[in-house]
Design goal:
A twelve-stranded mixed sheet has the order 1-2-3-4-5-12-6-11-10-9-8-7, with helices on both faces. The radius of gyration is 21 Å and the shape is elongated. The chain has ten helices and twelve strands. The two termini are about 20 Å apart. The chain is an alpha+beta fold. It has two domains: about 140 residues, Aminopeptidase (3-Layer(aba) Sandwich); about 170 residues, Aminopeptidase, CATH 3.40.630. The longest helix has 15 residues. The structure holds coenzyme A. Coenzyme A binds next to strand 10, helix 9 and helix 10.
């Protein structure tokens, strides 16, 4: 549940979104039994359990959730709450209100949330939603976005009932490593070399070398400008980039392929791991500087990631695609990625928002 559609990057851990408490909710949450409170550090394990219960195909480890909240959401998380049984202290629901990383529209906030399937239809999802929407209004937000799996009729119903309308879609796709081939890579590398483009890896360049990381961050910042998003682009600060991609259990500094023109990095493709899904390599960002696009550099770098997956024992590679990102999806389809499920981005205009200064995180 409490998972961020990271950045409309190529790979977004898919949120299971707010689980429904039924299209015709009969009762408000029993506040004698349940308490909505601020999220605690000790809640990550419970939230990982909620995520798995609502979306068994995309489990996330408590460490991954913590990493996400403490790195990429740092500075953009406005409210993070849990609903616990007052008697047992068991967490039965959770939700968060945040600004999407890489986006800068102060009046556009996002929410994620979920309720333990054993406690759905008890008004808990509505209670979380009402609390987060009220917070969003108080902070002057005028637009709320949320994602839900296309296959979740209750999730879609929950949002429709609250005035959300579909904005656009993204999807998760998969490549089975055993059936994929990178045999074109050597000839591609030779052909690129004639244009003085060299294929390399971050491991070779020096993943611990601050200068190298700074240059890779510069490339990432430039190439990511063209990722489809809502509103204007805010680059990820270097420290956040370093912490998010190179610290924690998800980090795979060896799974970064790079292209160089002279000593300038011109394209990157990278992947990470998800401890809760050890056989699946999570393909994240791929980006080529605009003036180097359509020269098969992106393709070559992704073939290097495929080679990495094979050599390191991964069964499959998964990634996500925004429906607006035709270049990336065309490239991925050519490699053999096949769509496995769709996510819908819903949006709602908030009425009664306070006008005033831009919201800032607590
Ligand atoms: C997507 C991206 C990485 C592609 O990089 P690239 O180096 O230009 O890709 P390649 O030259 O290797 O393209 C390989 C194939 O992908 C497809 N493709 C690439 N760009 C395309 C485009 N603009 N339109 C349609 N298909 C495209 C084509 O099939 C292409 O083969 P072709 O040129 O023989 O037709 C690049 O457009 C980019 O950096 N975009 C901005 C960042 C981004 O959105 N990244 C993805 C989300 S993380």
């Amino acid at each position: 549940m409490t998972v961020v559609n990271l950045c409309r990057m190529e790979s977004n851990p898919t949120p299971s979104a707010i689980s429904d408490d039924g299209p015709c909710r009969m009762q408000p949450m029993d506040e004698d039994r349940y308490e909505l409170r601020e999220f605690r550090d000790s809640d990550y394990a419970a939230v990982a359990t909620l995520q798995k219960a609502n979306d068994p195909e995309q489990p996330l480890s408590p460490e991954s959730l913590r990493h996400m909240f403490e790195t990429i959401l740092q500075g953009s998380l406005f409210r993070n709450v849990a609903v616990a049984d007052r008697h047992t202290q068991k967490v039965v629901g959770a939700g968060a209100l945040f600004r999407m990383p890489f986006e800068s529209d102060a009046a556009h906030l996002w929410l994620v949330g979920g309720v333990d399937p054993a406690h759905q239809r008890e008004g808990i999802g509505s209670h979380i939603y009402d609390s987060l929407a009220s917070e969003a209004r108080q902070r002057g937000a005028t637009t709320l976005s949320c994602q839900v799996l296309e296959s979740s009729a209750p999730g879609r119903g929950f949002l429709a009932k609250r005035g959300f309308v579909e904005r656009r879609r993204s999807w998760r796709s998969r490549l089975e490593v055993a059936s994929a081939s990178w045999s074109d890579l050597p000839s591609l590398a030779r052909s690129l070399a004639t244009d003085r483009i060299e294929l390399t890896t971050l491991a070779h360049e020096g993943a611990r070398n601050l200068q190298v990381l700074t240059r890779v961050h510069g490339l990432f910042t430039e190439a990511a400008k063209d990722v489809p998003r809502d509103g204007s682009y805010t680059p990820m600060p270097f420290d956040q980039f370093r912490q998010f991609f190179f610290e924690g259990d998800n980090a795979l500094p060896d799974a970064w392929s790079l292209a160089k023109f002279g000593d300038r990095y011109v394209a990157v493709s990278q992947a990470a791991r998800e401890p809760a899904r050890p056989g699946v390599l999570q393909q994240n960002f791929t980006g080529t500087l605009p003036e180097f696009r359509r020269r098969k550099i992106g393709l070559a770098l992704k073939l290097m990631i495929l080679q990495y997956a094979k050599l390191n024992g991964y069964d499959r590679i998964e990634t996500s695609n925004d429906s607006l990102n035709v270049p990336m999806w065309t490239l991925n389809q050519g490699l053999g990625f096949r769509k496995v499920r769709e996510t819908i981005q819903f949006e709602s205009q908030l009425s009664g928002a306070r006008s005033g200064p831009s919201p800032s995180p607590t």
